[in-house]
Amino acid sequence: MKHLNHVVDFCVVGGGLAGMCAAIAAARRGAKVALVHDRPMLGGNASSEIRMWVCGAHGDNNHETGILEELLLENRYRNPLRNYSIWDSILFEKARAEANILPILNCSVNALEMDGQRIKAVTGWQLTTQTWHTVEAGLFADCSGDSILAPLSGAEFRTGREARAEFNEDIEPVEADNKTMGMSLLIQARETDAPQPYIPPAWANVYLSDADLPYREHDVQTSNFWWIELGGEQDTIQDTEEIRDALLKVAFGVWDHIKNRGEHGAANWALEWVGFLPGKRESRRYLGDHILTQNDVRAEGRFADLVAYGGWTMDDHHPGGMAWPGEPTIYHPAPSPFGIPYRCLYSRNIGNLFCAGRNISVTHAAMSASRVMATCAIVGQAVGTAAALAVRHGLTPRETGEQKIADLKQALMEDDCYLPWNSRRVPALSLTARLSAAQGQAEPLRNGIDRPVGAADNGWSGSPGDWVEYAFETYQPLRQVRLILDSDLNRKESPMAANYPLHMEPVGVPQTLIRAFRIEALGEDGTWQVVARMTNNYQRQVRLDCDVTARAVRFIPEATWGAEKAHLFAFDVA
Ligand SMILES: Cc1cc2nc3c(=O)[nH]c(=O)nc-3n(C[C@H](O)[C@H](O)[C@H](O)COP(=O)(O)OP(=O)(O)OC[C@H]3O[C@@H](n4cnc5c(N)ncnc54)[C@H](O)[C@@H]3O)c2cc1C
Fold it and tell me: Probe ligand 1: pick from 91, 144, 361, 379, max atoms within 8 Å of CB?
């Protein structure tokens, strides 16, 4: 068989949202990256193969930003009817667009070579080309969900639920066990303008009445059927095929129930899609230098090395899934946000191995909150950014945390990742300039906090046509302008649909975003010149390169996507 060898700085295994964000972050910061993913499309549980909604931190203005926000805003702009193939195409092109990323798709990593306590290379089989790919790298990140590199490398990991006493976690069982949350196959339906009969397969389960689906909300207008869940009392890796077969019986049986067993307001609805690849919630978790626990979560996780945050409840599904007649999950309250420390994001015994996604170093209880995809994505961005720093300085993941944590945090905030209770160092040129505005107080634009927090807006509002200005004592060379605009971090984020009603409400670009604006510089001849202009912006973070010498520089909003006022959180010049 054909065998290809690749040499890169950083190899990411698994292209869910965690792996994608890790790869993109590292590539944009200069590392040569291989992204080895075993599916044709990227996005993992968010992709069209599984179709889970991207959820994240609850609460005012806690929405995750950075690369994830870039993906979601691209999707809002180009995919108003929330079509899964368009979403897949956006994820695909974002990874493809990075010159520093070598994507190796349809390639399942199943072997590796060690060099002492470090991974030297990983090898995978590419189904479509019948080719073995070996990727040699200085650093690896396991973003495969199931932590494929742990058993292959000897990295320490855990599965199942910890005993209550081990970490003093009161939501854990008294005795440790191997039970996990189960896996699911989702179903999607589409409304039509005429009655649609449905004939179930003979092998589907039969749910005669609503009493057979207790606590399982199945309104076709609103449910995404996440509770079609099994396998938590089996092995969610080894038994997956068997569990998939059982889930198919449930999925088609649930649709039969909705269509044929009682009135569900679904006469005109037709089955659109059923997943055949089980979406996994839980399996192996790495052991890092810190294990995040329920108590860390409850204490808000204000760690000095906080590099990401969660804010979902501790949403601990019953391992019995459909076999459990009670409530399928318990939402144990968690503060939002809670910090996730860097020490949870690498293996404690394999020297060059990061992890990101649902498999980070957390207990079962903490994982029930940290597992949602927006959290996984920002954890991925933290790992990718750390990897780029580690490559640049020739450090291991642990050394990067010990020696470069301040640089890592600054890099993340510069790339629009929110780190609660931290603020960004603002460029010296912005800090030393005289800041003024046509109206209102512009000073928050250089306070290093790029979103509203509590009662503080941390931004500037003006009408289209108003200006914000930095004036300098002497002529200054300007190389870059960085803006953080308002993408409405309280927007109701349902980036994708569960089901498709006949007259579907389109989503769009948040009205608060500034669509058109210009940057003007005051030149040596005393006149204002336009040095950059955008007329169709739909992103929150905008970086514009320029090459001028100026006595002053202005940001002038021209139009929004609907809001009366133009609102922004940062205007950096460097
Ligand atoms: C049914 C269900 C409902 C959920 N509901 C929500 C929800 O509403 N909102 C939310 O945000 N989260 C939800 N979650 C949780 C969330 O989807 C996961 O925790 C999250 O997707 C984990 O992200 P990840 O990147 O670690 O893994 P994944 O999204 O699973 O991505 C990992 C990828 O790695 C690939 N891979 C695996 N092994 C290999 C290998 N050997 N070689 C190469 N590639 C490999 C896999 O194919 C996969 O695509 C749900 C999960 C499930 C299963």
Answer: 144
